[in-house]
Write a structure and sequence with these properties.
single chain, mainly alpha
């Protein structure tokens, strides 16, 4: 969510960013309108940029012996953990994590009716379990990864993600710091208007 702040997303854009994983297809403007679609396209661009980043490739190499083909999924969670646990340093001028999380959740709460059902369920779980601020806690991250490992029959290795982090904490923290610093620069230099009607699926 903080990367959306760096990019200058407004409230509808933040909604689009939040629901991005639940939205499929190319012509998102037709269904969601430009204001929300820019956030959906931002989410896709962010995923693409992060996945291709050298720091992410390096991190996945550390995680892969523990989590196999799920290393990318696990890395997303672990990078969020590093951001949460070092928020005041890495988020740059966004204050304390608790206050930031409360503000972002309040903004999304005002747009719940516009969310797809999948996103609404995730939002409810995120609030109920306190995940947004809770990601700074290793036990919470371990619980989340184990919960993810139970969602699909083949996702069992996701549950080993916290062990991968413990085994390679110094290297993975450094990968996350490099990635997050680059996300800051990337987001602040992004032309959001150019994302609308961008031909990506």
């Amino acid at each position: 969510m903080v990367v959306g702040e760096w990019a200058g997303l407004d409230a509808p854009g933040k909604l689009g960013n939040f629901v991005g994983d639940a939205v499929k297809g190319r012509d998102v403007e037709a269904k969601w309108g430009d204001d929300i679609a820019v956030g959906i396209r931002f989410h896709r661009a962010l995923d693409e940029h992060s996945d291709r980043h050298e720091a992410s490739r390096e991190a996945r190499a550390f995680i892969r012996p523990h989590c196999g083909k799920w290393s990318g999924v696990v890395w997303d969670v672990l990078a969020d953990h590093v951001l949460a646990s070092e928020f005041e340093t890495l988020a740059q001028a966004h204050g304390r994590l608790d206050a930031f999380a409360a503000h972002e959740l309040q903004g999304l709460a005002l747009q719940l009716e516009s969310m797809p059902e999948r996103s609404r369920r995730f939002y409810d779980a995120m609030v109920h379990h306190g995940w947004l601020a809770g990601y700074r806690d290793g036990q919470v991250v371990d619980d989340v990864l184990h919960a993810m490992s139970r969602r699909r029959l083949t996702a069992g290795p996701v549950g080993e993600g916290w062990q991968a982090f413990v085994a390679h904490e110094h290297a993975l923290r450094e990968c996350a710091r490099v990635l997050i610093a680059d996300m800051n620069t990337w987001a602040k230099g992004l032309d959001l208007v150019s994302l609308v009607h961008r031909p990506v699926g």
